[in-house]
Amino acid sequence: MSINKLKEREKISCPVEYAVSVLSGKWKLRILHALIKQSPKRFKELEREISGITPTMLTAQLRELERDGMVEREIFATVPPTVEYRLTAFGKTTAPMMNEIKNWGLLLKARQTGSNDNGI
Question: How many CB atoms lie within 10 A of CB 38?
Fold first, then answer.
């Protein structure tokens, strides 16, 4: 993320808009969801689990999440080097929100497909 975008984020006063600015994009919620399900995960595990993401994009998104204090990276001195990613304590605070998003997504999908699997 560029310095200009970070400066623009600092100007945001609405807490919802601020949170969305941190979590926005196609991949961040999917990365967080993968790490909530199982953490730590190696880079290649994340790449395989998140279909459609390129290694370059995954690296960029992980770096942003790391910069925002949600993900931490551990490098192991192996050949080739092994890198694992895990949620920080702060990153784990997204779990209840992610669970609600998952439940809402199931409800939305059921409404739009006409099925009523959730009893709602």
Answer: 10
Nearest to 96 by CA among 104, 107, 86: 104
Q: For tokens 């999908």, name the residue.
A: 109
- Strands ordered across the beta sheet of 82-87: 41-42, 82-87, 71-76
* C-alpha pair distances (Å), 108 with each of 15, 102, 105, 115, 117: 25, 10, 5, 10, 11
**DSSP code per residue over 54-74:** -HHHHHHHHHHHHHTTSEEEE
Encode pLDDT of 94-119 as tens digits: 999 999 999 999 999 999 887 665 55
Cross-strand bridge partners of residue 87 = 71
Tokens, residue 32: 């967080």
Q: How far apart are CA 12 and CA 21, in angstroms?
A: 9
Instruction: Name the residue type at position 119.
Output: G
pTM: 0.83
Q: What is the pLDDT of residue 114?
A: 79
